[in-house]
């Protein structure tokens, strides 16, 4: 009996010693353990995300999630509540492609919602999103987002009622500020993710010498995003669509680098920024955007692409994905946002 007890104590000592060795020498982050004990939340040490069930029960804020520095960020700066299926497909596809990263959706129409029950009802309104464990929905509070950035004073002075492109301009500003503060990847809500983007600091080439701002990623406090916010204010023109968006990104990029034309499907390096080939997100250029809503004899593989931008701004015809149409966009829904597709196919609706 005593011999067995000694063996047990010896094994316990060896196990404890091994654990302490890992903590001291193998790179365990002490602040990670402190965070668990202090906050009472379950944290994934590989990516800094907070378990969703714990987050909900502890009233975690958007900043709590975003501060992990590894989120995929979507914005809705308009007042609409009934979101198009493409928005839900974009978010679902990102959540599936990046299962170990938080997907954060900030919505302006939740800005004046004071009741947590009302927010929960809004989230439950979209069952295809509420069932995804790494998707978080929060109110978009522009003043908080722009605070302590070069955009804050501009925002406090501007008369938004006189702005002809305010939904787009406000989104342009918020995405820069959020990526500056927290890092991560920003995506427009008409981008369907297909495979992970393997770059930390990147811009998406829309064509030769021209950058998109519909998808980009940086580490927090990167020079590009700060310079972008300064240029936003210095060269502000709310009447010119894109002046604070893709035109701004292109201006700043050309300030940093002299860019050659793209060679085949190769990317271009600009310091520590990867300027990604248009094939990565724009294999179908904007003049041909209707091709997404057409039937193809042979479906493209998009093997060189990380995601597809469906050019919703160009979609003045309000074309949508229709189950049974056999269009390219239907096949994309089936493969990359199957829950959204099934909801539309079975119920004819993505809402409850």
Describe the structure.
The protein is α/β, with parallel strands linked by helices. The protein has 2 domains: 2-39, no CATH class; 56-279, Spore Coat Polysaccharide Biosynthesis Protein SpsA, Chain A (Alpha-Beta Complex), CATH 3.90.550.20. Helices cover 40% and strands 13% of the residues. The protein has 14 helices and 10 strands. The strands form 2 sheets. An 8-stranded mixed beta sheet has the order 3-2-1-4-7-6-9-8, with helices on both faces. It has a two-stranded antiparallel ribbon with strand order 5-10. Helix 5 (85-97) runs antiparallel to helix 14 (338-347) and helix 10 (166-182) runs antiparallel to helix 11. The longest helix has 24 residues, at 2-25. The chain is globular and about 50 Å long. The model is unreliable at 13-46 (pLDDT under 50). It is found in: Golgi apparatus membrane. It is a single-pass type II membrane protein. Its main location: Golgi. Keywords: Glycosyltransferase, Golgi apparatus, Membrane, Transferase, Transmembrane, Transmembrane helix. Residues 218-342 form the Alpha 1,4-glycosyltransferase domain.
Give the proportion of residues in helices. Answer: 40-55%
Count helical runs.
14
CATH fold node name of the largest domain: Spore Coat Polysaccharide Biosynthesis Protein SpsA, Chain A
Mean pLDDT equals: 85
The main sheet comes to: 8 strands, mixed
Strand elements, count: 10
Q: Separation of termini? A: 63 Å
Please state the oligomeric state of the protein chains shown.
single chain
Radius of gyration: 23 Å
Largest sheet, spatial ordering of strands: 3-2-1-4-7-6-9-8
By helix and strand content, what is the structural category? alpha/beta
Strand/helix succession: HHHHEHEHHEHHHEEEEHHEEEHH
DSSP strand (E) fraction?
Answer: 5-15%
CATH class of the largest domain: Alpha Beta
Count of discrete domains: 2
| CATH architecture title of the largest domain | Alpha-Beta Complex
Low-confidence stretches: 13-46
Shape designation: globular
